[in-house]
Amino acid sequence: MNVGILTYHNTINYGASLQAYATQEIISGLGGNPEIIDYVSRHRAKSYSMPDLIKAQLSKSNYTTAARMLLGWYFVDKRKRKFDAFYEKYLKKGRPFRSREEITSAPPQYDRYIVGSDQVWNYDHNGHDTTYLLDFVRDKEKTASYASSFGLEKIAPEMQNAYKEALSCINWLSVREDGGRKIIRDLIGREAELVLDPVLLLNREQWRDLSSKTFPCRKKYVLVYITKGEDFDRFRQITQYDLSEYMTAKISRSTSVRDFLAPSISIKYAISPEEFLSLVDHASLVFTSSFHCTAFSIIFQKQFVAALSAGRGKDERIASILNLLGLEKRILTSSSTVEQIERPINYSEVNAKLNVLKSQSINFLKQVLDTP
After folding, report:
1. What average pLDDT does the segment 193-218 reach?
2. How many domains does the chain have?
């Protein structure tokens, strides 16, 4: 069975790249013949274009931000080249579509169309593009969503009709978070299946096979993968965690000149997806506000702390999986202590719960692929 996967596959984001790879691998393992639908709208292309991003900041008179982007251009370009090499090596892509008009006028032909995972239904991320709702597919019986995420608390009134119409036509519906189930229930009265993000369907050894074989730091380290620099400041202030024996391996858009100059900090912004996996796997502790970094911390059975600071819609991505696995105490709160952070996670219990959820998720995909 030929399966077209519509997802965010052209990003320089570790979670997005690795979930696309995982979806492809899982479907292949279930006997399907997967292919990434190579759809990149102008909006998505501009999201990772430094000239466009800098122009946008200048148009808003955000000169300091534009200057920082200009200084960081080298690192973004280096990171992009590594991601491009990863996509070229591991993803099987179909013919390119570079506009909504192209894909709707001559849609690619597959036996199944699967949209997901990641925040494909977050219209703030895709420029209000309903292509990610599979509305370009003419035979709706062939459509499915797998672990699609809204990354939103609710759908804005001006988008509700488009979402109602498109979601009603998707044959098999599944989402990654409980909040997504509620949105679908409220919009169209259907119950979507709750499934795992595809990265959690591959096991630790499968990810280690993909991982870089080089050791990422010269001494033991804490991995810090955050979007807001103040999150790590808050962690240190609340817990008074002693970092004197560790390097800090940092991936953050809020990296400062001081970070580059500090001998105890190693900046890891321009690493490949394979190197990212190794970085998580070898960390002594992971502190992150990233959903996928949290997921890989669980896969590699690491001690970790999750920061929730992005708002209810986005934070639910992390909170949902931690609640399902009984790991809600790994979320940073105002009362978090060093003792809580260092208390070993019982991964035997976690994996028992994870295996049940894996089985349910795989069964959903089998139903999609095996139904005549």
Report:
1. 94
2. 2
